[in-house]
Design brief:
single chain, alpha/beta, six-stranded antiparallel sheet, QueA-like, ten-stranded mixed sheet, 10 helices, 2 domains
Length: 405
């Protein structure tokens, strides 16, 4: 069956609200860890994850850093307008370039209370320390999102710094609570580096410096990629079948050195920490496959489309595809590849790079649950039933699992 025909109602389960973790545990690595391999389930905690990862495995982490993407403006009349910064305007080469803009930036946003924002109105927000004023004006509107022109009167500040000072942590909507000061630290991985995500790569929230050191001492390799998680990750599938669902595109960034690690790990276990890491490194295969098929990807455009894995006839070996991409980058003096992926990993997908996944428990009828089902087939139900029956905590701040193909 082509994934277009998958019925989303076949990928659901009952998730009581009390099973959704509203807050993280005090100790990150104290969260439960469900281990699934060859049809059997065992349990441990994240602080012992190194015991369940074979030596010489390569683990790949998403080092994306969450920005304070939610801004609240107050109108002179007292009404509050909420601005959720989604992504930079297409005029910028990539998210990093946009985040480093000074004085002014164009950003695609969602607006809460948009009906209160009258045509031509400029909103202002004053910050005390450092002292600056941020203004927002609507430049355009398209597909339900607004393009805002954001300006600030301190030319020394980058947009990343402005968001840090005036923005709030963009907690997932299903937590049904406002961000608190503690979330600035807990909703961020300890290895976060590249600013631009509006949601955390939550599988990595459980990892501490000690856990990372334990993995290194065992001989487990570590590699880092970047996928800037967009708000689309929270968009539910509303169509009956996946044919009617448009997968959101997200920016990815991978260095030539990381690609070399993947090539050298051929034949060994490669574990993606989080669905975002998995989508990134699986996308690398398809970009390399395009090159071998005589297609040169246009940089800064979507390089992997939603249905490409299911509709490409000529599919080369994993090593050949990754090597082709490595050589392409070397020939073009590219130390890093920055582009976007729209890949949908769903039942019917053949995994090319990844052999294991560390991940949290996902929402019913979500594309993330489809990804897990692509790995495990119908066994995903057994895993989720076990988690529900054994007091596992669900979603972003919840527990998780180590799943093997």
């Amino acid at each position: 069956m082509h994934p277009r025909e998958l019925r989303i109602e076949d990928y659901t389960y009952s998730l009581p609200d009390e099973r959704i973790a509203k807050y993280p545990l005090t100790e990150r690595d104290a969260s439960k860890l469900l281990i699934y391999r060859n049809g059997s389930i065992s349990e441990d905690t994240y602080r012992n994850v190194a015991n369940h990862i074979p030596a010489d495995t390569l683990m790949v982490f998403n080092q994306a850093k969450v920005v304070h993407a939610r801004i609240f403006f107050t109108k002179p009349t007292g009404g509050v307008i909420e601005v959720f910064c989604l992504a930079p305007h297409a005029q910028y080469a990539d998210i990093q370039t946009a985040m480093q803009q000074k004085g002014e930036v164009l950003w695609e946003c969602l607006i809460g209370g948009a009906s209160k924002w009258k045509n031509g109105m400029v909103l202002e927000l004053k910050n005390d320390s450092p002292a600056f004023t941020l203004s927002a004006a609507i430049a355009d509107k398209e597909n339900g999102a607004y393009l805002l022109r954001l300006k600030w009167d301190d030319p020394t500040l980058t947009f990343a710094e402005v968001l840090h000072h005036v923005g709030k942590v963009p907690l997932p909507p299903y937590l049904h609570r406002n961000a608190e000061s503690s979330d600035a630290a807990t909703y961020q991985t300890v290895y976060a580096k590249e600013e631009g995500s509006v949601a955390a790569p939550t599988a990595g929230l459980h990892f501490t410096e000690k856990v990372l050191n334990d993995l290194s001492e065992k001989g487990v390799g570590k590699g880092f990629v970047t996928l800037h998680v967009g708000a689309g990750t929270f968009i539910p599938v509303k169509s009956d079948t996946m044919h009617g669902h448009n997968m959101h595109a997200e920016w990815i960034e991978v260095t030539q050195a990381m690609l070399q690690q993947l090539i050298e790990a051929d034949g060994r276990n490669i574990v993606a920490v989080g669905t975002t890491s998995m989508r990134t490194i699986e996308s690398l295969y398809w970009i390399g496959n395009q090159l071998l098929n005589g297609i040169t990807p246009a940089l800064h455009e979507i390089c992997v489309t939603q249905w490409e894995p299911y509709e490409t006839d000529r599919q080369h070996s994993t090593k050949d595809a990754l090597t082709a991409l490595y050589n392409y980058m070397a020939q073009n003096s590219m130390e890093r590849l920055i582009t976007r992926t729209q890949i949908l990993i769903a039942p019917g997908y053949r995994f090319r790079v990844v052999t294991g996944l560390v991940t949290n428990f996902h929402q019913p009828q979500s594309t993330l649950l489809l990804l897990v089902a692509a790995m495990l087939g119908d066994n995903w139900r057994n895993i989720y039933d076990h988690a529900l029956q054994n007091d596992y905590r669900f979603l972003s701040y919840g527990d998780g699992g180590l799943l093997w193909l």
